[in-house]
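Wed. Picked up where I left off yesterday with Aminoacyl tRNA synthase complex-interacting multifunctional protein 2 isoform X2. The coffee machine is broken again, so keeping this brief.
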Amino acid sequence: MSVCMFKLRPIVNHDEPLPVPSHNMYTMKPVQEAARTQGQDKAPSSAATGSKGDMAALEGRQEDILKKLSKLRIDIEELRAILRQPSQVTASSLSTSSNVKCPPCPELGESRDIVVYASPKNPPYSLLGLARVWRASCPIQISNHTHSSVKEAPSAALTFVNEVTGVPNLKIILIWKEVPETELVINPIRHIAVRGETNILRFLSRVGPTDYAYEANSNLSQVALLDEVLDNCQRLARSKTVKEKQAIVRTFNASLGKSEWMCGQPKLSIIDTAVWSVLKQQGPSAALTQTLTKWMERCDSMLL
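Structure written out below (tokens, as returned):
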């Protein structure tokens, strides 16, 4: 036997009619009343028939869902197989008479589109230089965009405009943005990024024309020397004192020596492009020697 100390009236009485606003568009019977009326009207035989009909409809919907899931699984497997395939770039796809070809790069995919974020304070002139030098063997198309963090497009953006005849083998989407250093995004889905202009040049030398791949040199000591010059470019871009900058510039002068191009290379290479770009970013503060000044003029005539 239960004993209650207090008795409370119901807070909500569903038997009482609720006021309905006059401006409503549609009227609807109370849910409780509709359910009660439906239960009273149904006979046992009709309830059994309705139950079988509901089960048949449920089974039909389940079959449709299973078919859609099966088709979705097949589509995913086909997409996965496509993404695993390397980029098919052959000499026939190049709009050039040269025998040089760009090697396949699975990271870039079929589209071979990359995004580069660059600060207006340090324009990546090396990308523009590569577009000029690789024009015949591996056409590069550069397009300019300005991020919302930059109030207006830098004056250097007018320089980064090039025309490509035919279909480009590589599309670089250059976005001017307030970033600490130049950044290349290879695959936004996998979040693969390459930071630093010299590191970007290292990457492009591996996916670009084979005769510009400095690492293909069989002389390992020469490759190490070229890598050291690229490291000095990165150091100069990050240096803050005048003394440190002048010391790095002297190493460039030593690497050039009496040769026409950096490190005694027979022709303009990725190394020249990297040094040329970082010295242009420094401006007059670089305090170039007479030898480096003449070398810069040769680079300007070929890369600008």
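Quick read: The chain has eight helices and five strands.
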